[in-house]
Amino acid sequence: MNPITTLEPNPKANVVVSWTGGKDGCLSCYQARSNGFNVTHLLNFRDTKKKGSHTINPKLLSAQMQATGILSMQADFISYEQEFKNVVRELNDNNAAIEGAVFGHIRTHGCLVDRICNDLGVKLIMPLWKRDHEQIISDLLEAGFETIIVSVKAGLLGKEWLGRTIDRKFVRDLRRYNSAIDPCGEDGEFHTFVIDGPLFNHRLKILDSKKILEDGYWFLDVSQFEVEEK
Predict the structure, then answer these.
(1) How many domains does the chain have?
(2) In a structure prediction context, what are the per-residue pLDDT tens digits for the chain, which is 230 residues long?
(3) How far, in Å, are 89, 124, 193, 201 from residue 1 at the CA level?
(4) Among 3, 15, 185, 192, which is disulfide-ready with 100 (CB 3.0 to 4.6 Å)?
(5) Domain carrying residue 113
(6) pTM for the whole thing?
(7) How many C-beta atoms surround the C-beta of residue 17 within 10 A?
């Protein structure tokens, strides 16, 4: 696997971004675009077999993707790999000329996305791959993203962490709470949702939510939100 990890300017190279609404994909998209890649589409896939720790209110996710001003596509999948390839092939059949795919992975799923990109004949772009995890959080904040915790693994983190903003004190507070927890949540300890930042033309504001426990995870179930002008 030879992913592009240190981004060199590559103007007008069309790429898609794998998107869950969380910090890693969002930061990777930002870094790819900042280095000259032309992000044509955000691709979001929902597992039909289970809820999963990445699940977010689909209306909220759609609003977030629209707030970027980047074309977006959402699809259900039984096989993520197959559906990702189907979508990119369909885009290219319609003259999208996709040359690369951006993923926010840090140290997992590398073989999977390498295989996907090889089969598609596109470049694998992973700006965060094997980077220092605390530095990733620092870069996220330095870029100006506003990110909240939307799910935590029960037994590792309490429900009081739901809705917590990732700020300059986040890593320190996490270390004090449990030093074994990865600052990026790379082992599934928590998942995030980005509500504002340099990619966004509008900011999302959470108006009402409740905390629910399901399948070993606490979720921030957002029922009401609004899109604010910036």
Answers:
(1) 2
(2) 566 554 555 557 999 999 999 999 999 999 999 999 999 999 999 876 665 445 688 899 999 999 999 999 998 878 889 999 999 999 999 999 999 999 999 988 889 999 999 999 999 999 999 999 999 999 999 999 999 999 999 999 999 999 999 999 999 999 999 999 999 999 999 999 999 999 999 999 999 999 999 989 999 999 999 999 98
(3) 21, 9, 29, 35
(4) 15
(5) 14-125
(6) 0.92
(7) 27
For the chain, give the number of residues.
Answer: 230
Amino acid at 203: R
Query: Which of 69, 91, 125 represents a domain boundary (last residue)?
Result: 125
Q: Is residue 170 part of a domain?
A: yes
Specify whether the CB–CB gap between 207 and 225 falls below 8 A: yes
Among 61, 91, 125, the domain boundary falls at: 125
Q: CA-to-CA distance for 127 and 47, rounded, in angstroms?
A: 25
Q: Would you list the DSSP string of 169-181? A: THHHHHHHH-TTS
Residue 217 DSSP symbol? E
Which among 90, 51, 18, 76 has a CA at the least distance from the CA of 218?
A: 51
| Structure-block tokens of residue 76 | 């259900």
Q: Is residue 68 part of a domain?
A: yes
